[in-house]
Amino acid sequence: MRMDILHAVNRARANRRAIATLTELDGETVQVFDEGDRPEGALGETLEKAFRSGKPTVLDLDGKPHFLNVYLPPARIVVIGAVHISQALAPMARLAGYDLTVIDPRTAFATPERFEGVDLIADWPEDALKDRPLDAYTALAAVTHDPKIDDLPILSALRAGCFYIGALGSRKTHAKRVERLKAEGMTDDQIATISAPIGLDIGAATPAEIAVAVLADIIRAYRQRSLAGKDAA
Predict the structure, then answer these.
(1) Could you give the CA distance from residue 120 to residue 130 in angstroms, rounded to a whole number?
(2) Residue closest to 104 by CA, chosen among 77, 71, 127
(3) Are 18 and 69 within 8 A, CB to CB?
(4) For 115, which of 2, 102, 105, 159 is 20 to 30 Å away at the CA?
(5) Do both 130 and 189 map to the same domain?
(6) Are 99 and 195 part of one and the same domain?
(7) Long-range CB contacts (< 8 A, 24+ apart) of 29-35?
(8) Cα–Cα distances in Å, from 33 out to 44, 196, 228, 229?
(9) What does the pLDDT read at residue 1?
């Protein structure tokens, strides 16, 4: 790989941005694309699919074979609440290839014994997220059912454009949450992106089943997410 291309890839990785490189197989021509770039025709369609899947591909452009490689930031899940759902979700997320962090200031719940091998932070979310800010490649799952703990990270996720935001609670609970979010300046369109009640509606009843529904919802949101710049006009 050429040094200038390597530097571009490393800069994107450091900033948790997606980048793609297009190389002419019969030559040395290399083009670099950000996730928001939208070339016309087959290249644009292939780029969009590649940025969603993370898979490299070979395509023909002007009668010449090209190799398209994509570099996506590792998708991660931040769970607010060291509860039974989080305990079930952690190993599932690992199997699905997602980094997962659990944050909960309640030290009676956030213990290494309950979350062995899990990235666990026993601190208030507003403090924990200072060092690990949310971004477009982060899914946030707020499951404490306590607005004193859940509300601020939900606000942070909305402002950061997280690809998934889910919040535990009934529709009545969420209606009160909506009022609090609007009081903080959030718009109806922003609030509508929250999955509440959290997870796909599969009739989940147990913590493990809810964890399955949450992870499935996260995966769907990630694979169907709006790509940077796609809807800009």
Answers:
(1) 15
(2) 127
(3) no
(4) 159
(5) yes
(6) yes
(7) 30/2, 30/5, 32/5, 32/8, 34/228, 34/229, 35/227, 35/228, 35/229
(8) 10, 35, 12, 12
(9) 62
Terminal Cα distance for the chain, rounded: 34
Q: Find out whether 104 and 84 touch, Cβ atoms under 8 Å.
A: no
Same structural domain, 8 and 110: no
Same domain? 198 vs 125: yes
For the cut 60, the answer to whether the pLDDT of residue 233 exceeds it is no
Q: Which structural domain, as residue segments, surrounds residue 46? A: 3-71
Q: Which two tokens stand for residue 119?
A: 């990235």
State how far the Cα of 72 lies from the Cα of 155, in Å rounded to an integer.
25
Q: Is residue 170 part of a domain?
A: yes
pLDDT digits (tens, 9 = 90+) for 171-203: 899 999 999 999 999 999 999 999 999 999 999
Task: List, for residues 202-218, the tens digit of each pLDDT value.
Answer: 999 999 999 999 999 99
**Region class of 213: left (phi > 0), else alpha (psi between -120 and 50), else beta:** alpha
pTM attached to this predicted model: 0.88
Distance between CA atoms of residues 230 and 161, nearest Å: 14
Contact 179/189 with Cβ under 8 angstroms?
no
